[in-house]
Specification:
It is a single chain. This protein is mostly helical. The protein has a domain of 45 residues. It has four helices and no strands. The longest helix is centred in the middle third of the chain and has 20 residues. The model has no long low-confidence stretch (mean pLDDT 74).
Length: 65
């Protein structure tokens, strides 16, 4: 499975990248792989922190549409 894209694998399994790595990280064995996972974790963390949160009013407005 070396060389496969984590995002593709996660999608095939029905997982987010975060869940994919939380569940399957135990099979990552080299120090290089762990460094790459750390980079992905940082990217996921940054993306989720920047994601705008919808208010209850926004949700209700969308339901009316």
């Amino acid at each position: 499975m070396n060389g496969l894209k984590p995002a593709f694998l996660a999608k095939q399994l029905g997982h987010s990248l975060q869940v994919f790595f939380q569940v399957y990280a135990k099979w990552i064995s080299s120090s290089d792989d762990r460094a790459e996972v750390a980079k992905l974790d940082d990217a996921i963390r940054q993306k989720t922190q920047l994601k705008p949160k919808l208010s209850a009013r926004s949700d209700a407005d969308q339901a009316d549409s």
